[in-house]
Write a structure and sequence with these properties.
Elements lengths: L4 H8 L8 H11 L3 E4 L2 H8 L4 H5 L6 E6 L2 E10 L13 E7 L14 H12 L2 E2 L2 H11 L6 E4 L6 H10 L4 E4 L1 H7 L5 H24 L6 H14 L3 E9 L20 E10 L2 E11 L4 H20 L6 H14 L11 E3 L6 E4 L13 E5 L2 E3 L3 E3 L2 E5 L6 E2 L8 E3 L1
Parallel strand pairs: 1-6, 3-4, 4-5, 6-7, 10-18
Antiparallel strand pairs: 1-2, 2-3, 8-9, 9-10, 11-12, 11-13, 13-16, 14-15, 16-17
Helix pairs in contact: 6-7, 9-10, 11-12
Amino acid sequence: MAGTPALIAYLYGATRMLFDPDRLSKEMERAGLDGLIACSGPNICYLTDIRSIARSSFPHSPDCFAVVSRGDLSRVSFVSSLCEIDQVLDADPIVRHTAGFGTFYRTANNSVELNNREKRLESIMRDSPRGSTPLDALAVAVRDLDLVGMTVGIDEIAVPRDFLAALEQSLPTVRFVPATTFFRTVRRIKTPEEVARLTDATQIAEAGVSAIAASASEGVSEYELAREFEREIVSRGATPGFTLVRIGRNAVAQQALPGATQLQRGEAIWIDVGCAYHGYWADIARVVTLGPPGDKLRRVYEAARAGEEAGMKGAQSGMPVADVFQTVVDAVRDSGLRHFQRHHVGHAIGLEAYDDPVLTADSAETLEDGMVVNIETPYYEFGFGGVNVEDPVLIQADGPRRLGTLSNALIVLD
């Protein structure tokens, strides 16, 4: 992985802006927004490239934000406690304003020459505008970005109502409007940096699936196989998101945690796994068998695979999402699984495992260049278990492109 674009940018400090400033500016203008306040972890990351520890550790506490003005998208403000304001050192270089709050101590040592990162953090601790509370610090950022008297979209789903009410009272001339849906809409179209990270995440997850297959032997448990996946992806710099590994008939309860059930020869391992790499998600699914599969498993898997293949080939820019859904379902049924039913056949993916749009029969959305969508065809049956095959594809003008390289064929172990 050492040569991947996202990792090179991360290690050597190159600009790794996640959003397209031209597109964001146009979308903000269209929505009548002069500024934006990101409150959720994914949206803070989108504007800053900071994976906020505060938001992941305390997701219901409003104590970390990113603020940007349409008038200058090259200057993003990061609002955080002084304890965690050091995360700005890992941010995109466009984060050129900070507002801290609270009390935290980093002791000066005048006898030591500071390096550049230390100098920047020392300057932030000394000179950064601050407030005594998160609300105060956020108000400082809004004022410093000249958003007083403007219309500002706020990621409202990630803050309590009383916090929003207090913010409106603190800045009475600012018109705050809901922007959670706006963020999700803007994030649909991925930049090259986002695609690079999604590709890296996918290929790391694929390595984790291969690690499961390499560990499969008689007597190994679901729990042990799940840990092999997690060990592999962590060794490659990713963070486990969900690790669903079920043996045989257990797969009908696909979301239940991996347990003590041990693998026997002739049984299938159902795998649906997700991980995050530098903020971006992978979500893939495969089936592994120890020894030759039974006729039914082979037939069902090949039908599911045919549906996924049809979806990946047919997911063209400009295609209605509802048509993608029907294409996938029809292909599975035409391949022998006549009673196949699904509520969706995939979803977009990015800073969240489920981004918009979700590929449903009643969706009014249309695929666009730059979207990354997962195509999947899960099937579950009592007394049998389940199968699933799932992969992400990039929608582009010259046709969809798979981000991964692992074959989507049934994995059969001798």
